[in-house]
Amino acid sequence: MSLGDEHGYESSRTGDDGAYGGYAGTGQTRTRLPEGDAPYGGAPRRPRSSSRSLVTIVGVVVLLIAAIAFANRGGDSDGDGGSGGDKAETAPTAASGERPVESKTVGIPTGYARNAQGAESAVANYGIALGSADMFNTERRHEIVNTVYAPDVAADRQSKLDGVYSGEEFLANIGLNKDGSAPSGQTFISRIIPVGTKVTTSSDNNATVELWYTSLFGLSGEGSTNPVTESWFTTTYELQWVSGDWKITDFTQKDGPVPVGRDQRASTAEDMTKAVQEYGGFTYAR
Fold it and tell me: Looking at domain 107-258+267-278, does it have CATH number 3.10.450.230?
């Protein structure tokens, strides 16, 4: 798991100069016949009856309504030719009508809606806190754990995390001092950026939500032997509705999905440090 984490088109058209030429862009020339003359020598042309015009208009409207209804079905056909039954539906992060959470506990958004979308927002925000550099500070770590975990598991989780985050060998391996601080002249970076969430199970009292994210972790600055790197993970959180909010009871983590990296030049330590200091992280609620 990540260190520090618990867990188009171009529009082209002809200009107004009539490049297509002719009549109505068809390349044809409009010929106006003298009034009263019969085309091709036949009888004089009579105007189309109003009743026939009305029937034609009604027919067009009916066809349009039918076409719109068919398009809105989205392929949910019961016939053999239907393709909607086997498609996995995506759940884009969009406005839902739920009011965003306005309360915070020790700086972490809390007070989510008791539904699947509330669980997704909770997981995104809790993941950010659990993957932050604050987890390497004992006091701050205790605040985070007591906020995001259910009370009956928080104490046990806190004890285990204290054992990990205070281990001198672990801290030395990632380049930090014994107290979890960065060496002089360097900046410690531990930040996760959620890419998406997916609810796999949901009820009034329990939910299972997957969080896919990218993680930045390392030390920037002169003399750093542990430069900031990027990783990709998916963490599955088990949530329980406790005292009016979603709380974590357990989690599992796996690598990826990992996209193909582009051939981009890595930024200097100075640029990376400046970016982390100037660009604050996000909180998520929908």
Answer: yes
